[in-house]
């Protein structure tokens, strides 16, 4: 296509010579030269080379418990959590929030869904679930962060903080470790089997068109830059987006390994998630072969979101990570991962939360200002939240009243 434009511009210059046409010719010549030089530099999709087939055979099988869920652990089982994570690159920790906290989160999630649809969706009326659905087919709710009180409580949850502290270890900092929480979105997937046609009818039908793509397996990092097989690129733009307009959703996606050699992501599971219910999928154990894979599959890309080709053999190695409600799934960003489609009668609900060392944030005060603007009015920040929300760095504007500064209370309604 680029060559066709080049040829068209050249012929135009020959036929209708003018300085403007000559300028167009040289611009297109420059574009074509860059594309030829950079090759796949702008590509978001990669396909595995044949030389990697043996690597994938090294990947482990994910163990399950007697109920068919992926093996999980209590938050106090630190040694088992670390051992499992080292082998598989992810771990499931159960009961990080209780049923009351789950119910409050789900109420906010539904309110968020209804608001994003401009009130055309009603949680208790299945007839409204088809139009103006804001979550898209991959199950991520809109482009706005989860901003209700319980969503913020979950970001200052002590159990979730402890889990990330275990996994970051010395990278978290001295003492208890200083980690910041991401400010991200909810996830929701509609049921696609035996869906009621309305609240006042017993009629039901399947909705296969509501299912997402079978796979959009990807990394939220650049595997070549991260593994050191390609040179690093600037990380400044992501920092600017947060400080300028509070764009937290992709914060730290492009962070280089020299800031922190560990990169983690997480999901708070808000409903029992069995294999047919849709949810989180990953290539377990890939963190052990990432560097070798990157060497064997060299591509030139500067992007921090890299998608695996839909025909790649790696797709077959991905495993659904089933989990009970109230569990938290944390995984290494080195694992290819995605959501997979819902093929059941149940909704899939989740909240995306990750934590990262505060040392990765250069302007902590500026980030704290951006977070403060997102907090609900009169929100009480807990002692844990002073760290995870970064409010310990907040400085009220000189003309602000004393009541505008974030309050801290050990008796906060924040979960522990």
List keywords for this structure.
12 helices, disordered C terminus, 2 domains, 6-stranded mixed beta sheet, 416 residues, Jelly Rolls, single chain, 29% helix, globular, alpha+beta, disordered N terminus, 3-stranded mixed beta sheet
Describe the structure.
Residues 401-416 have a biased composition (Low complexity). Keywords: Membrane, Transmembrane, Transmembrane helix. Residues 391-416 are annotated as: Disordered. The chain crosses the membrane at residues 6-32. This is Phytanoyl-CoA dioxygenase. It is a single chain. This protein folds into 2 domains: 2-38; 45-377, q2cbj1_9rhob like domain (Jelly Rolls, Sandwich), CATH 2.60.120.620. The protein is built from 12 helices and 18 strands. Helix 1 packs antiparallel against helix 2 (19-38) and helix 9 packs parallel to helix 11. The protein has 416 residues and is of the alpha+beta class. It has helices at 2-15, 19-38, 53-56, 78-88, 99-116, 149-155, 158-168, 223-227, 236-245, 290-296, 364-372, 383-388; strands at 45-46, 72-73, 90-93, 179-181, 186-189, 195-196, 204-205, 218-219, 264-269, 279-282, 306-308, 319-320, 328-332, 337-340, 348-352, 355-357, 380-381, 407-408. Helix 12 (383-388) links the parallel strand 17 (380-381) and strand 18. The protein starts with a helix and ends in an 8-residue tail after the last strand. It has a 6-stranded mixed sheet. The radius of gyration is 24 Å and the shape is globular. Mean pLDDT is 83; it is low at 1-11, 31-44 and 409-416. The longest helix is centred in the first third of the chain and has 20 residues, at 19-38. The chain is 29% helix and 14% strand.
